[in-house]
Amino acid sequence: MSIALMTVAGVALDALLGEPRKHHPLVAFGRLANRIEARFNRAGRGWRSHGVTAWFVAVVPLTLLATVLSWLPLVGWLVEIFALYLALGMRSLGEHVMPVAQALRSDDLDAARQRVGYLVSRQTEELDAEAVARAGTESVLENGSDAVFAAIFWFVVAGAPGVVLYRLSNTLDAMWGYRNERFERFGWAAARIDDMLNYIPARLVALTYAVLGKTRLAVRCWRKQAPLWDSPNAGPVMAAGAGALGVQLGGPAIYHGELHERAVLGEGAPADADAIERGWQLVQHGVWLWLLVLCLGGLIDA
């Protein structure tokens, strides 16, 4: 089966089934990662070399297993599709962001704060409606890149091994990639590897957002504002996404009790419930565009 058809099948499975409610492999991997960290980062004293070793122990064996399974005769293509399905988080993203927009439309700020708290690591208890909408819009743009587009990219590049390598690496970055006393040294490898794996996908996503939205504004925001953002990959994605939507994102936010002075991204009106919904539509339309390009490419090669 062609890579284009397998990609379409994986995306379709995610749309139909969503994430497994029980026994999700990434949940089991998270428990494994916690045990590995306890072994290599005792009392938060692990060095960079320990973090590199821990990353290899966590990621490489499972990536090799995915490689072997994808080579199996007759069923290898099913393994490929299932690997992409498990790595995608598109339907889950929509299920998490749309309730934020709905709560804002209902003027239920407490519910909106609670819902957006499931998506972001910043403190949400005291956010006003605009700040909640800003957090929700930022989340849908960035998570669309990490949980959807990058997974598709690495599947197209390297099949099941590629998407497994990416998803496990991205999970370790979410668990270990913090700049605090516990993970500053140990989590360095997980954060840098995730940055490398997301470098090309993030810029393709920024381009996708620009093409599907306010193109000139998106490109201008990408060029001028992305370098001001802390993350080398989230910067282009969120700056281009904010410009494509014609809204203003970024600005100060409180993380773990500390105020972070973040750059302002985008131009235009403040974020609101409509911005969240349009951000979600931007992700959906982007996936359809990618699938269309893949299928057309498959027809040309046939």
From TrEMBL:
It is found in: Cell membrane. Keywords: Cell membrane, Cobalamin biosynthesis, Membrane, Transmembrane, Transmembrane helix. GO terms for biological process: cobalamin biosynthetic process. GO terms for cellular component: plasma membrane. Its main location: membrane. Pathway: Cofactor biosynthesis; adenosylcobalamin biosynthesis. InterPro entries: Cobalamin_biosynth_CobD/CbiB. One of its GO terms (molecular function) is threonine-phosphate decarboxylase activity. PANTHER family: COBALAMIN BIOSYNTHESIS PROTEIN CBIB. Belongs to the CobD/CbiB family. HAMAP family: CobD_CbiB. Converts cobyric acid to cobinamide by the addition of aminopropanol on the F carboxylic group. This is Cobalamin biosynthesis protein CobD.
